[in-house]
Structure to design on (500 residues):
DNA sequence: CGTGGGTTTGACTCAAGTCAACCGACGTGG
DNA sequence: CCACGTCGGTTGACTTGAGTCAAACCCACG
């Protein structure tokens, strides 16, 4: 804890990582920026680490920063008064956090693994947003993408069975992984589950136990197999797709 | 009702309604436009009526237009292969339809009442979007608002009970109505349900029967009363809020 | 090798879905 | 003017999928 915090503050102090070497350079909010805009962002950026389980922001907080996730995984969530929790989105590297113009956060955002963020003071960012011709359109595009993802999930949460939810999640994860690693879609895709059963259940609107049971059933049915608690192999992508009940799969 | 339809089809033929007299002028995508931009929009706009039940767009369609809803109510939805349907959002006057830059629709959008739209050819609109300093930020703001709404609904769909869902819907509707009509929040708020039980069930991720039962129960519990099938009176807003289980209500 | 967090599995419960009958308002046509 | 059909809504009886509670399990780690 202390060691880690020390590490973060080191990063915070010395780091002026070169944007051109940035791993999320071509996908993040800055991806369309010309050298002059990139330079302006470079001036105002600072890096910050969040450890696993740490809150990046929480409901009602007045955010001083917006920014991009550089590495790690974070979850956006909301809860009911008795603690029932729903994960509203998973943030991956290059995803944007914060809403320019609305500094008060409407969500909890928590690091699910160690997370590194590239942050901009919200006021400075808003100012640049009003001038830059590249920043606004990119943010709009990213926001539309998030809206599409959220609505896809609404269909899952409102209308899919537990088995369909798991199948959809695994299928989506497999597609993301193969795209990311530019792998061919073949038989026996190997996945490393980045989430615990509990987190997964909060993402799918289920309980831990139901997630566990449905994974077992998919395994018994030969569609996937499970090694340990995090290694999943998909044997039959088209069978998995069929289990999602999505329109396009029929 | 008939008068309204007549009025609208007249509009379709002759219409070049003056933007300054437009009922959604101060809320729609154009709300921040200066006279010159407004003029450009005015040049490219056409009005179109959709009758109740008619598709405004459907999944996979290549949209020729984007635009604003001027009057009526429409529903955005997605379905599974066996017909299970989830409503992803309700469109009210001043709401925007379409995604500039992505002409292929990812949703079904259906008129739930007679709907009037103010439409812009998508290519022309995109061009203007790149030049106008007012259009982009407003669209971004509207998209963020929709994202917030969608995520609020994800919590409802994933984690709330049937009773909580109904309470949340009624509470939200009451807030909207009182805001819209600038009414004080007092006891006995009268609502006219704009949706059938079936549509409501597709919005809340329930069946028609469950919606009906929960409304009856809320009525028996004295929180609301139901006159006919569309007139609902809320007797106790704070009791209703308590039934939502939302964080802020506790 | 113990200890503990994450996970699996079983037995039971219950909220919501399914299936079906019925109700009541409305519009149409004999 | 009444009979009829339709459509949306309500209610009841029954079923079921997912939740709850609890015990056992399995590595991973110190």
């Amino acid at each position: 804890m202390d060691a880690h915090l020390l590490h973060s503050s080191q990063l915070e102090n010395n780091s002026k990582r070169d944007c051109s070497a940035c791993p999320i350079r071509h996908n993040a909010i800055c991806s369309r920026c010309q050298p002059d805009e990139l330079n302006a962002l470079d001036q105002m950026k600072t890096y910050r680490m969040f450890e696993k389980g740490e809150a990046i922001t929480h409901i009602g907080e007045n955010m001083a920063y917006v920014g991009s996730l550089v590495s790690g995984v974070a979850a956006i969530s909301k809860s009911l008064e008795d603690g029932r929790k729903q994960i509203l989105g998973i943030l991956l590297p290059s995803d944007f956090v914060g809403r320019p113009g609305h500094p008060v956060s409407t969500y909890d955002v928590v690091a699910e693994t160690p997370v590194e963020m590239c942050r901009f003071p919200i006021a400075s960012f808003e100012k640049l947003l009003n001038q830059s011709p590249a920043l606004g359109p990119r943010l709009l595009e990213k926001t539309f993408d998030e809206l599409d993802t959220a609505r896809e999930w609404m269909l899952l949460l409102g209308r899919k069975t537990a088995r369909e939810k798991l199948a959809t999640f695994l299928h989506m994860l497999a597609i993301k992984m193969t795209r990311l690693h530019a792998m061919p879609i073949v038989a026996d895709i190997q996945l490393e589950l980045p989430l615990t059963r509990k987190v997964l259940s909060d993402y799918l609107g289920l309980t831990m136990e139901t997630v566990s049971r449905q994974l077992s059933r998919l395994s018994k049915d030969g569609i996937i197999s499970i090694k340990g608690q995090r290694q999943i192999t998909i044997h039959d992508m088209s069978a998995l797709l069929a289990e999602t009940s999505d329109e396009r799969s029929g």
